[in-house]
Write a structure and sequence with these properties.
The chain has 67 residues and is mainly α. The chain contains two helices and no strands.
């Protein structure tokens, strides 16, 4: 059986709603691991085709209008 590791990054700007949602997901995954499904190759291909050549930098801050 595959295992899922869930960890929470420590951040001083925690969003209480997001934190509660992530805790809910972690509890649900722990209680119901049989409900997890891998992402299909068809869905992955579709997402990649929609993104095209979009460059994403996870290290750059969002623009003010994207916050």
């Amino acid at each position: 059986m595959d295992r899922v590791l869930v960890s929470v990054a420590q951040n001083d700007n925690n969003d209480p709603i997001l934190g509660a949602f992530l805790e809910f997901l972690a509890r649900d995954i722990a209680k119901n691991p049989q409900c997890l499904e891998p992402v299909s190759t068809n869905l992955l291909s579709r997402v990649q085709s929609l993104l095209g050549d979009v460059d994403v930098s996870l290290d750059e801050p969002l623009a003010d209008e994207d916050e």
